[in-house]
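Sequence of Porin (Shewanella hanedai).
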Amino acid sequence: MSVAICMTAFNANAALEIYENDGMSFSADGLVNAFYANSSIEKTDAAGVKSDRDQSRVRTGFLPNNIGFNFANQLSDMKIGMRSSFWVSISDADNHRDATPDDLGTGSLIDIRQFYGTVSGDWGELLVGKDFGLLNRANILGDELLLGFGQTSDFFGLVDGGNVSFGNISTGYTYPFPKSQITYRSPDLNGFKLAVGLMDPNKIAKNSSEELPRAEAELVYTTDLDNLGLKAWVSGAVQSSEIEDKKQNQSGVGYGANVKFSGFSLTASGFQTKGLGHIAGLDHLVGDDSIKTDGYLVQAAYTLDSNRFVLTYGETNVENTNSILDATHSNAGIAYFRTIRPGLTAVAEYNQTKADVSNSLVGEENNTISIGAVFTF
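Predicted 3D structure, token representation.
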């Protein structure tokens, strides 16, 4: 299945028109997936003691199951739109036998990641509400494993976690966590599209002060040259926090490029952050500016008829200048996607995830084989 269809799972490009009349429309889109995954994990703890275990799961893949609803109304030269999407994990089995009775049972982790309105015209679009962030947005949307499984590092508790697998979050990019925002997107300007947003800031601590909102931006360029398609992007984020009269500045930049030709898709992307995305690559968990993170992701994919083959490698490095606990997380994988029918894709995947927390003898090698199916409409 193409990356364009993968992006549909994140964006309001609905596949099913429910109502359309006189400029007004209502549509829906959805995704359901489930994977069988078997992980073989070897770990070394802080005391240098080695251990290993095998774990089988039937769980959600990288994308949670979701359903979205879209409304649009064309009013002369202005279009008003709204989108809401609800995301659900099926990885809610009895994971911990020592849990209290209140913690057992099904939870589903219903998550509202998009709930926004838009106003658009020849001048561009204004989005108000909750949507994914702009920093590293194109990095994650361009991930060839978006409809697959990806990494499940036991270092982050992902093997037995009740949420999703992680794709290449923390092994190549940070997650553009959904945020309350006011974002302007420009019209197409000779292949360039610019987005600039004011986001609800992320607090460094309960008693921290953020005088200004978080600012994020993204610039994307797309073009077709004969039989070659090119997409390139750069994104960024800045915010400031103050705690106990000490000011902390958080910032990040993401970038990448994708080239498509003759069935091949080649992607290279990277990022650097300061004080952002230092915990499992989640950019809403803000730290102080002594924590620096950088990473990259390289992928090659080939599509032949209904078959898509993917090779991937991603790595993230975390440096804490106030601590000896630096870390490197990486993921290497191979995946096969087979479109059985439009809206039904079978996936087989192998990932080797490694974690190395230097100077503390903490290490992990996690080999995971996963097989699953993805339904979309």
